[in-house]
Amino acid sequence: MNGTVLFIILNEIIVNKLVDKDGNAISPQTVKTILKPSKEEKRPNTDKRIDLNKLM
């Protein structure tokens, strides 16, 4: 199964089975945005990142 098919299946499951915290349906576009890999240039610089290991 390639990534595109897996993404479509995951998107369908989330849209059809889950709701947001207010009970509203989650749109396919929202799921697409959340699951989209971020671009390296959009990530915070290493000195501005929060180190979760230090918080645990």
- Derived structural class: mainly alpha
Task: Write the element-wise H/E pattern from the N-terminal end onward.
Answer: HHH
Q: How many beta-strand runs?
A: 0
Estimated helix fraction: 40-55%
Unreliable residue stretches: none
Let me know the average pLDDT: 81
Radius of gyration from the alpha-carbon trace, in angstroms: 15 Å
Q: Largest beta sheet, briefly?
A: none
Q: What is the number of helical segments per DSSP (H or I, 4+ residues)? A: 3
Strand content: under 5%
Amino-to-carboxy terminus distance: 36 Å
**Silhouette:** extended
What would a concise description of this structure say?
With 56 residues, the chain is mainly α. It has helices at 3-17, 28-35, 52-55.
What's the arrangement of secondary structure elements?
Blueprint: H1 3-17, H2 28-35, H3 52-55
Helix pairs in contact: 1-2
Structure characteristics:
mainly alpha; 56 residues; single chain
Would you write up a description of this structure?
The protein is an all-alpha fold. The chain is extended, with a radius of gyration of 15 Å. The chain has a domain of 38 residues. Helix content is 48%, strand content 0%. Helix 1 packs across helix 2. The longest helix has 15 residues.
